[in-house]
């Protein structure tokens, strides 16, 4: 399958899954919030774990069935990768959501806060790529 077509289909599936979760469960498909709440004891814990398992299983299935190569992590940057993960988690908690919650669900609901947060996510990402590749 063409890589552009896969991106479009993937985007449509992400949007549909977020819409289905909102319509049938009344919940926002913000991955950081779902992951955070899955560790807390509550009645809702079951669907959150199923959502996370579905993300992992869907990724594995796509890579194995569509012959998509899995990106390899560099061996020499493990400390930076761990630090980056903590910073992303801290930022998601500080910003009351992650790119999926704000970028997909929030913008879809025309949330002003989500437009601002997504603009900051994207600007920071673009700046990070620029600095890491050109400086």
Automatic annotation (TrEMBL):
It is a multi-pass membrane protein. The chain crosses the membrane at residues 6-26, 47-66, 78-95, 115-134. It comes from the Bacteria. It is found in: Cell inner membrane. InterPro entries: Sulf_transp_TsuA/YedE. Pfam families: Sulf_transp. Keywords: Cell inner membrane, Cell membrane, Membrane, Transmembrane, Transmembrane helix, Transport. The keyword Ribonucleoprotein does not apply. Belongs to the TsuA/YedE (TC 9.B.102) family. This is YeeE/YedE family protein. It comes from Catenovulum sediminis.
